[in-house]
Design a protein that fits this description.
The chain has 385 residues and is mainly alpha-helical. It has 2 domains: 203 residues, no CATH class; 135 residues, name from scop (3-Layer(aba) Sandwich), CATH 3.40.1690.10. It has a 4-stranded mixed sheet with strand order 3-2-1-4, sandwiched between helices. Strand 1 and strand 2 form a beta hairpin. Helix 2 packs antiparallel against helix 5.
């Protein structure tokens, strides 16, 4: 089986594929829907204001085609006069134009929306190929167009036959009427036929809209391999991966630094490492690492801690041990309980100190041998400790 056969295209099109189709000017549109809706809107306007419209047009025609002696003698005024009457004619039928424009916009939105594509507007010399033209003439889309037009022809024919059979006696009676009543009754009958034909075409177009959308999405379906290749193409680009990682680091770093203000102490290696710890006995029985970092991140942690008046304790071995063994928002390892407890006890004594008391001294926290690291994260050997 071929890799790109229709049987394998079982996946719905991705947003990227849909956007590419829009850029090519491909949209799920019914070719008859907009026109049918506009005609129905015009029929509705004529149904509502038809008598007023006929009276206004009749009065305008009588006024326009009536010439007195002064108008005949002032030939130079005729262009201005006819321009005025032309403007008046447009004003009389303004509601028809407004309704047609509004419905055309609304139906276009419903029928796939607006889309301007430079690719679609560009000339395509491939369409001049006779073989391509024959494929389009005898392809599936061409046959669907023939079936669509055949359905419209049948619908319009059925409406006309129905009206002629139902109103055949009225049609025969029209020939015996006087001229003016015959015109009035004939106009009413023609308008009714026009409305019924428009409704039939609009019903077919309304059924065609969901079919066009289904056909459009089916035509853009992808195989699992195409979806996988697209994901690799989008996410596999080095600049995209680098940008994603940078954004993730920025978001993670921003959240982490925002927690520094809640720390009880910041343990530092004066120039390289900084670890912010929190100990809230009501929530956790073990101190938690709120933030950690080295280099630039460590400087940011120290600055945030200084702004929030968080005590800072210099304990290089403990700072390195916490940095290399504990993740952010995780409790400290059991082997470092005693060393961290000594630091917290010193901090709590500082916070409880009054001016008349002597400043307590920090007992150098003892870090177990298995938690001793150098600045590169390598465990120190016995001779290096």
């Amino acid at each position: 089986m071929a890799e790109d056969s229709d049987e394998e295209k079982t996946e719905e099109p991705t947003s990227r594929r849909l956007n590419q189709a829009r850029e090519r000017g491909e949209m799920p549109r019914s070719p008859d829907f907009n026109g049918a809706m506009v005609v129905l809107a015009m029929c509705g306007v004529l149904l509502l204001i038809g008598p007023t419209l006929v009276n206004d047009i009749s009065a305008m025609m009588v006024r326009t085609l009536t010439f007195d002696r002064n108008r005949i003698e002032q030939i130079e005024e005729l262009p201005r006069y006819f321009a005025f009457e032309l403007g008046d004619a447009f004003w009389i039928v303004r509601w028809i134009f407004i309704a047609a424009l509004g419905v055309a916009i609304a139906s276009s939105i419903f029928n796939g929306g607006f889309n301007f594509s430079t690719q679609a507007a560009a000339p395509k010399f491939g369409k001049m190929n006779p073989l391509s033209g024959l494929k389009r003439m005898f392809g599936p889309q061409a046959w669907l167009g023939v079936l669509r037009n055949l359905a419209k022809f049948i619908a319009i024919g059925a409406v006309l036959v129905f009206v002629l059979m139902a109103r055949r006696h009225e049609l025969i009676a029209l020939s015996r009427e006087a001229f003016e009543p015959m015109i009035v009754d004939g106009t009413k009958l023609a308008f009714m036929v026009f409305v019924l034909v428009s409704l039939a075409v609009a019903a077919l177009a309304a059924l065609d809209v969901p079919y066009q959308r289904w056909s459009y999405l089916r035509r853009l379906r992808m195989s699992k391999k195409e979806v996988s290749d697209e994901m690799k193409d989008v996410e596999g680009r080095p600049e995209v991966r680098q940008q994603i990682r940078r954004k993730q680091r920025e978001i993670s770093r921003g959240r982490m630094l925002g927690k520094v203000k809640d720390a009880d102490v910041i343990i530092v290696n004066p120039t390289e490492f900084a670890i912010a710890l929190e100990y809230d006995e009501s929530r956790n029985s073990v101190p938690i690492v709120l933030a950690k970092g080295r280099g630039e991140v460590a400087r940011a942690i120290k600055e945030r801690g200084e702004a929030a008046s968080i005590p800072r304790v210099e304990a290089p071995p403990l700072a390195r041990a916490l940095y290399y063994t504990t993740e952010v928002d995780a409790p400290i390892p059991e082997g470092l309980y005693r060393a961290v407890a000594a630091v917290l006890a010193y901090v709590f004594r500082l916070s409880a100190m009054t001016p008349d008391l002597t400043t307590p001294e920090l007992t150098v926290p003892e870090v177990p041998s298995e938690f001793r690291f150098d600045e590169d994260g390598n465990k120190l050997q016995e001779a290096d400790r």
